[in-house]
Amino acid sequence: LTFLQHFFCIFFLMELLVRLVVLRFDYFYSTHLELFNIFNVTLVALACIDLYILTPLASGGEPDWTIVRILRLACMFRAFQVVRIFDIFGHLRVLFATVVASVMALFWSMTLLFIVMLASGLTLCQLLSAYISLETLDEMTVAWLYKYYGTAGRSVWTMFEISFSGGWPNFARPLVELNASFACFFAVYIAGVVFAMTKIITALFLKETFKAAQNDTELMIQEKMKEKQAAAKKLLDAFVAADVSGDGLLTLDEFESFMASPRVKCYL
User: Fold this and answer.
1) Helices 34-49 and 66-75 meet at what angle, rounded to 10?
2) For residue 23, pLDDT beyond 60
3) Cα 268 to Cα 253: distance, rounded to the nearest angstrom
4) pTM
5) pLDDT tens track for 138-158
6) What is the pLDDT of residue 157?
């Protein structure tokens, strides 16, 4: 384990030094990777500090300060550098970039939903307060109403569950049976919030995902390389199939015979 720590630390340090030598200050002023590059430098620096400074200090009996623990915790995130190296993590990198780019969209979306849920919860709490105080209702119904709509906090939390849990009939059906007019309220809320607003927010995140994928230069390069490799493989298979003699050489007669094939014409 210690060997792997030294190996990856030196590997990432050498990679960073090569990038700095080649790109110089442009490494920190890229059009869309400046934050990630700064984060990368920070991770490599923390890894070196942890492995070559903090570890010897700890083995020498020095006190383990709180700042040292924080730095070691931050060093754990150096594993995220692997995401930039292997192609199989390309989609994960796009997802991470999408989440980062969608922070503000998520904030305002949740703010809007919270305002709608707050208004709806307070409305139901106010409307149902009269039913809770009725003496004609049985105790189980009153207890159920108070449990889910008895206070402002309970009512807002119930609206949160209705919006995101998918079990809104369990919270709406008893109220509709109590008074049919609540059906209109829930019909508007389910259609406008649970269906329409959530679908719009989902479409917004999909848009950000596509935008992040289009702006990811490394992913685009990898996709182009895969397309070229696939095309080269198909072309190689075609030449191998055209080489009827199997001697590794394609003569003019073999090529003309291959191109005259109906399957080849259909493929082209």
Assistant:
1) 120
2) yes
3) 19
4) 0.52
5) 889 899 999 999 999 999 999
6) 94
Spatial distance between the Cα atoms of 129 and 144, rounded to a whole number of angstroms: 12
The 8-class DSSP code of residue 261 comes to S
First to last CA, the chain: 54
- Taking only the tens place, the pLDDT of each residue in 38-70 is 777 777 777 777 777 766 666 555 545 455 455
Contact 257, 263 (CB under 8 A): no
In whole numbers, what is the pLDDT of the chain averaged over residues? 77
Q: Within 13 Å, how many C-alpha atoms sit on residue 107's CB side?
A: 5
37 in Cβ contact with 29 (< 8 Å): no
Chain centre distance of CA 221: 21
Using alpha carbons only, what angle is made at residue 142 by residues 139 and 143, rounded to the nearest 5 degrees?
A: 85
SS3 labels along 57-120 = HHHCCCCCCHHHHHHHHHHHHHHHHHHHCCHHHHHHHHHHHHHHHCHHHHHHHHHHHHHHHHHH
Among 23-27, 31-35, 130-134, 239-243, top mean pLDDT goes to 130-134
Contacting residues for 250 by C-beta, under 8 A, at least 6 apart: 239, 242, 243
Structure tokens at 25: 């200050």
Q: What distances in angstroms separate CA 33 from CA 30, 42, 84, one per listed residue?
A: 5, 14, 12
